[in-house]
Amino acid sequence: MTKTSPILLTQEEVAELAKELGRTSLMGKTITAHTKDLEDFMALTIDVPGHGEAGGYEHNRHKQNYTYMNLAGRLFQITRQQQYADFVISLLEEYADKYLTFDFHVQKNTNPTGRLFHQILNEHCWLLYTSLAYSCVAEVMTDAQQEHIKNQLFEPMLEMFTVKYAHDFDRIHNHGICSRCCGRHLWLSNR
C-alpha cells in the first residue's frame, strides 16, 4: 500500500480531536452530532446516479456523497473505526466503476458541463471534497484500489478539467481556481 497523509489535517490535530470523543465539550458534542448524521447516511443504500437536472435528485445525491465521504474520511482519522474508511472506499470504487460510463451532461448553460453535474464548477467541488476524503483513507486501501480510483476517476476528471476545458483552467475565476486547487490536493495525496 502507498502511504499517504491526510490533507488539511495534521496527526497532532487528529490526536487533539480524538481526545474530544465522548466528551461534553463543544467539540465533543460536534463530533457526536457529525457521527450520528454520517451513520444515518451510511445506513442508506450506496447510490451513484448519473446526471439529472440542476438541483434535482442526482445533483443533490452527488453533493451528499462528497460531503459524507469527506466527513467519513475525517472521522476515520479521529476514531480509527474501519467502517468509515470502508464507506469512503466503497463509494469511491462505485464512482470509479461508473464515471467514464456517464456521458457529458445534456443540460447546457454558459458553463461547460461535467459527467456528474450540469456545470463543471460543481464537478470541481466534488473532486475537492472527495480528494480530501481519499487522503484520509488511502493508507488502508490496497494498491489495486488506489490505482482503480486514480485511473478510472481522478485522472479522467483532471484531464477533463485541464485538457478538455483548458480554456477555463488557467483563468483567474472560480472555475479555474477550483481546478488548480483540486489538482494540487490530488498531487499532494499521491506523494
Report the C-alpha radius of gyration, rounded. 17 Å
Low-confidence parts: 175-191
- What's the CATH class, please? Mainly Alpha
| H and E string | HHHHHHHH
What's the overall geometry? globular
Distance between the termini: 13 Å
Overall pLDDT level: 87
Largest sheet: none
Q: Can you identify the CATH superfamily?
A: Chondroitin AC/alginate lyase
Protein name: Alginate lyase family protein
Keywords: Lyase
GO molecular function, one term: lyase activity
Organism: Shewanella phaeophyticola
How would you describe this structure to a colleague?
The protein has 191 residues and is mainly alpha-helical. The chain has one domain (11-189): Glycosyltransferase. It has eight helices and no strands. Helix 4 crosses helix 5, helix 5 (120-137) packs parallel to helix 8 and helix 6 (143-164) runs antiparallel to helix 8. The longest helix has 23 residues, at 57-79. It is globular. The protein starts with 10 loop residues before the first helix and ends with a helix. Residues 175-191 have low confidence and may be disordered. GO terms for molecular function: lyase activity. Keywords: Lyase. This is Alginate lyase family protein. It comes from Shewanella phaeophyticola.
Gist?
The protein is mostly helical. Helix content is 65%, strand content 0%. Helix 4 packs across helix 5 (120-137), helix 4 packs across helix 6 (143-164) and helix 6 packs antiparallel against helix 8 (174-189).
What would the keywords be for this entry?
191 residues, mainly alpha, Glycosyltransferase, 8 helices, 0% strand
